[in-house]
């Protein structure tokens, strides 16, 4: 081609590019010429533009004006121009957030949120995270104290009535009149497996939240059975690509639902040519789970042999050891003997505590016959330093008088406890408990009854005491205090449905005496000042005879920190104490608790250097909790000191101290009852953490129904957003109110309101206001007056 032609083509290309660039620059600069007034108009039009994210439910007719719709959008979303939206809420009054809804009783109400399994291989392969966010657990696995990996362990494999019964109700059940199954003896349990006969069993979130609060890992179950199971295995074991695809899905399910591993239970024959792929599947699942969730466990159930035959071995031997080698542990069948236990222990070698010998609580060929004799099997297994797997302890509930469930449950676990070689404690702060077991005949909030009927919600269960009825006196020769019981009661509660009741008798003596009730074993590593709060109640007739205190047993001098009342003389302070108080006030807004005379707490041969006592804070406005007249006494303490810069809290105890006979009049011996309803141990930094409301509170799926007596009820879905900034503490859960009446507790950013009666307004109109209150991990509540609300105004057609 001629050089001149080429040069002309290049010149045309350059010129075209030049003019295109000029045109693009002019288009980019055009908005800068728009006046500020015009830009404000554009922004306003943007806010008023209809959106698929509107707060009106999809089944509600468009009966609002464009202006009203814009007001709803603006009210739901705080302005960002002043920075953090939390400041918007903290500094300004709560804005109105209103939706207008016509009453239409033709639309069926939404259904309760139910947890469910993954029932088929196709469902597993098509599973995606997020479609059922309401079923995702909130509580991450908490660190445990005394989690020695060498001792024999105890797995609980929960198999009850096919699974997914009342525990499948994610928001719990209310009202209820029958008894529901729960577990509260978590201090004995090393792992929890939720079992059903569905292909992939995903535990309901209540069990995961509940177990994780106690530091107990939760495993799901993968099971194939019968001819259908054999077909599923042939499909996913067909090649390396197919089983690896299944593994990646299982890892994703575990991450999304906060699972800590899987029980693999293949209860059908496997083609001989696929056995190696089955072993590789187990090995790859273990590899990927351990990499994605470092503490996770993959447990193989003793079923299929190396030849692919379905034949339970009841021991570790050549027929199943290759699967044991491929994963983190093996769950042996239940019909073992002492001879097979010896063989198993010898074969397992240093991995003995990773062999979980089955105990069928229903009996079915298990040594000891199950039931309340399960303790015999446990003792025999532990004598060989093997671990145990307790299958279906719900036998206590299913095969006995349900009206006696609580007493029989205590009997069952108390028979096992002396044979356990471990007792786990709590290892992570903040630590907050109201002693609730996740059930109740009533539900209290801050010492006042909010629900007067029965309820059930495992997510509401709080950390349970390590010990119950573990009491003794410090004055062995002549004790005036006799503690008869320290147990969980439903008679009264501060929050939830239970409290810890300490009952006994006190008689008049010349010298003060002391009695102890051990409560919690723990291993809290403390490097910062602590905020400690507790609420208790006592019968008035013994208020002048006994003092109630909590005592922390720590690992350095002083050995015991007593959190007592304010009726004891203060100790003298030096100048360094005053400087410390100034720093604390500057950092946390409050000085530390004053030290008081600790003489009355000393018992036995311990000297004064082993005790340090603190009086409660006198002014607690900084804590941000409104004073309540509810019959409970709440004490707050800020614990700090130059000698308390780094230490561990090993144990929490309740201590009763009697007063000398000369200080009171009346009967020589009187009964007493103390209720401990609330305990919080948290970093003092929680005092300064920003407490902010939820944002973007909205409703959808609104439906109306009429009761037989023509009372109007509303059902709807509430959703909201909450993102904690570095200056905020994470939310633990949300309490939901309807017209300032408690209606439910949410552990995700949504709540389904079901069949809620609404107040009849004048004529054919009315309204109801929903409020979502944030509660942080340290137990702090945002006041209702500062929480986000949504008002639903309704009009009958």
The gist of it:
22% of the residues lie in helices and 30% in strands.
Features:
797 residues, alpha/beta, 8-stranded parallel barrel, 7-stranded mixed beta sheet, 15 helices, 37 strands, globular
Written account of the structure:
By secondary structure, this protein is α/β, with parallel strands linked by helices. It has 15 helices and 37 strands. Strands 3-5-7-8-9-10-11-12 form an 8-stranded parallel beta barrel, surrounded by 5 helices. It has a 7-stranded mixed sheet with strand order 19-22-29-24-25-27-26, with no helix packed on it. Helix 10 links the parallel strand 9 (about 295-300) and strand 10. Helix 8 (about 240-255) runs parallel beside helix 9 (about 275-290). The N and C termini lie far apart (about 80 Å).
Quaternary structure classification: single chain
Structural class assignment:
alpha/beta
Query: How many distinct beta strands?
Result: 37
Low-pLDDT runs: 22-93
What does the main sheet amount to? 8 strands, parallel, barrel
Shape: globular
Query: How far do the termini sit from each other?
Result: 82 Å
Q: How much strand?
A: 25-35%
Average residue-wise pLDDT: 86
**Arrangement of strands in the largest sheet:** 3-5-7-8-9-10-11-12
* Rg of Cα set: 31 Å
Number of helices: 15
Helix content: 10-25%
């Amino acid at each position: 081609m001629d050089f001149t032609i080429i040069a002309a083509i290049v010149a045309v290309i350059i010129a075209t590019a030049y003019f295109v660039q000029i045109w693009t620059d002019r288009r980019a600069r055009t908005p800068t010429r728009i006046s500020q007034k015009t830009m404000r108009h554009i922004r306003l039009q943007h806010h008023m533009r209809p959106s698929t994210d509107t707060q009106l439910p999809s089944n509600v007719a468009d009966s609002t004006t464009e202006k009203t719709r814009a007001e709803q959008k603006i009210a739901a979303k705080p302005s960002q121009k002043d920075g953090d939206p939390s400041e918007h809420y903290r500094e300004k009054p709560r804005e109105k957030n209103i939706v207008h809804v016509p009453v239409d009783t033709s639309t069926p109400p939404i259904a309760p949120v139910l947890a469910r399994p993954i029932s088929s291989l196709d469902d597993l392969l098509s599973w995606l995270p997020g479609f059922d966010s309401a079923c995702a657990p909130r509580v991450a696995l908490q660190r445990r104290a005394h989690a020695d990996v060498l001792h024999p362990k105890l797995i609980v494999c929960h198999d009850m009535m096919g699974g997914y019964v009342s525990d499948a109700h994610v928001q719990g059940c209310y009202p209820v009149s029958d008894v529901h199954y729960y577990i509260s003896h978590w201090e004995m349990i090393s792992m929890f497996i939720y079992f059903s006969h569905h292909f992939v069993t995903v535990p309901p979130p209540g069990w995961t939240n509940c177990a994780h609060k106690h530091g107990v890992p939760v495993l799901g179950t993968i099971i194939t059975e019968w001819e259908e199971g054999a077909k599923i295995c042939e499909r996913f074991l067909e090649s390396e690509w197919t089983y690896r695809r299944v593994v990646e899905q299982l890892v994703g399910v575990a991450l999304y639902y906060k699972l800590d591993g899987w029980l693999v239970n293949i209860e059908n024959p496997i083609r001989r040519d696929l056995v190696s792929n089955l072993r590789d599947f187990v090995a790859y699942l273990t590899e990927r789970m351990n990499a994605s969730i470092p503490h996770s466990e993959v447990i193989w159930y003793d079923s299929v042999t190396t030849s692919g035959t379905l034949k339970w071995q009841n021991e570790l031997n050549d027929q199943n050891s290759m699967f044991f080698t491929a994963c983190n542990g093996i769950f042996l069948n239940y019909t073992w003997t002492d001879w097979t236990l010896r063989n198993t222990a010898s074969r397992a070698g240093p991995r003995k505590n990773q062999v979980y010998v089955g105990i069928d609580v229903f009996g079915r060929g298990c040594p000891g016959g199950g039931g309340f004799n399960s303790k015999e099997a446990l003792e025999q297994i532990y004598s060989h330093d093997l671990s145990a797997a307790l299958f279906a302890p719900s036998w206590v509930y299913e095969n006995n008088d349900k009206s006696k469930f609580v007493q029989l449950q205590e009997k069952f676990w108390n028979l096992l406890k002396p044979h356990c070689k471990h007792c786990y404690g709590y290892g992570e702060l903040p630590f907050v408990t109201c002693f609730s077991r996740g059930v109740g005949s009533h539900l209290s909030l801050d010492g006042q009854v909010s629900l007067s009927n029965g309820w059930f919600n495992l997510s509401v269960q709080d950390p349970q005491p390590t010990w119950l009825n573990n009491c003794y006196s410090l004055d062995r020769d002549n004790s005036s205090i006799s503690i008869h019981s320290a147990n969980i009661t439903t008679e009264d509660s501060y929050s939830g449905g239970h409290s810890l009741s300490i009952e006994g008798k006190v008689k008049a003596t010349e010298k003060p005496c002391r009695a102890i009730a051990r409560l919690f074993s723990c291993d809290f590593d403390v490097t910062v000042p602590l905020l400690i709060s507790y609420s208790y109640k006592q019968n008035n007739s013994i208020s002048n005879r006994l003092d109630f205190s909590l005592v922390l047993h720590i690992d350095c001098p002083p050995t015991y920190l007593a959190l007592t009342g304010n009726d004891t003389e203060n100790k003298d302070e030096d100048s360094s104490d005053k400087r410390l108080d100034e720093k604390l006030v500057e950092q946390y807004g409050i000085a530390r608790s004053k030290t008081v005379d600790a003489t009355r707490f000393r018992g036995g041969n311990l000297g004064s250097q082993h005790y340090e006592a603190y009086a409660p804070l006198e002014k607690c406005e900084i804590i941000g909790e409104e004073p309540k007249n509810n019959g409970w006494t709440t004490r707050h303490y800020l614990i700090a000191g130059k000698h308390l810069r780094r230490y561990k809290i090993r144990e929490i105890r309740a201590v009763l101290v009697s007063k000398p006979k000369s200080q009171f009049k009346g009967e020589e011996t009187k009964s007493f009852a103390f209720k401990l309803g609330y305990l919080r141990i948290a970093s003092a930094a929680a005092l300064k953490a920003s407490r902010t409301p939820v944002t973007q509170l909205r409703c959808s799926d609104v439906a109306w129904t009429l009761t037989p007596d023509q009372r109007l009820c509303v059902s709807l879905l509430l959703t909201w957003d909450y993102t904690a900034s570095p200056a905020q503490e994470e939310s633990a859960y949300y309490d939901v109110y309807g017209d300032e009446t408690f209606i439910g507790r949410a552990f995700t950013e949504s709540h389904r309101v079901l069949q809620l009666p609404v107040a009849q307004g004048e004529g054919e109109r009315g309204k109801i206001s929903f409020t979502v209150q944030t509660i942080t991990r340290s137990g702090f509540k945002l006041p209702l007056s500062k929480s986000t609300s949504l008002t639903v105004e309704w009009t009958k057609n």
